[in-house]
Amino acid sequence: MNAAKFAAAGFALLLSTAAAPAAQLMPAACPARAALTRLDAPLPRLALKLSSSDPVVIVAIGSSSTAGTGASAADFSYPARLQFALRQAFPGHDIKVINRGINGQDGPEMIARFDTDVAALKPTLVIWQSGVNALFRDDGLATAGAIVREAIKRTRALGADFLMIDPQYAPRVVADADTKPMVSLLNQIAAEEKVAIFHRFALMQDWHERDGMPFERFLWKDNFHMNDWSYDCLGRDLARAIAANIGTANRSAEVAPDTKLKAGVGTAGTLPAASATKPATLPAGAPTLAN
Length: 291
Description:
By secondary structure, the chain is α/β, with parallel strands linked by helices. The chain has helices at residues 3-16, 21-24, 44-50, 64-67, 78-89, 107-112, 114-117, 140-157, 171-175, 179-193, 200-209, 215-218, 228-255; strands at 56-62, 95-101, 125-129, 161-165, 196-198. It has a five-stranded parallel beta sheet with strand order 2-1-3-4-5, sandwiched between helices. Helix 1 packs across helix 5, helix 5 (78-89) runs parallel beside helix 13 and helix 8 (140-157) packs parallel to helix 10. The chain starts with a helix and ends in a 36-residue tail after the last helix.
């Protein structure tokens, strides 16, 4: 079986069985329209690494959304669920997702610790989750663009790919006048810099407005942070987006064999489409941390 079929089989197994306790608490399907979970920029360094037997290091840096506030355990944070999903999608590859989230931080603090928390780990991919806490700072929106561009510059200097995650969809975030401009700014930067962005805000908004989920179904008890179910879906959908992106890169490599990118990692066309329907059964209440 070639690597493309392995990737498809891995994702089918991931979506049909629960290989971790967290998954047993959650619906089998995460409602997501393909347009909301597509990465519009390539991840060429990650694709190249996955075409070899070399280990893959992904560093997820961010604030409490990355650290996993609202999850019932560290294993249920989105980086942990992403690692699980990617290992299922690419069996036989040594893939490690390192969580470098710190509660309350945003761009300035993340840049300050970039060398020690990111560069020192020699990542293939840097996932940059920011923009949420910037909304609650007087100069957050005004300074966000320059900070993100600096992060992209530093990541490129490492020879790594860069992927952004925008803010979560929650009442406090939605109510902030700077939220829509912030989301638009991050999208603009991604397009100008030709880097990938995962549209978490739009995805969660879709859960609420299109699929009719009340906030308490996918947010923690503070009605701000995500919970086990939504972190799991974020990890799954991000893994699906990455796998599809790698598949696209390898199809391009097969068409143009003189490219430096090797073929044979995974073909996105065989991955199951994300469910566009509501989960059959939602938990009676979002799993929460004990007081």
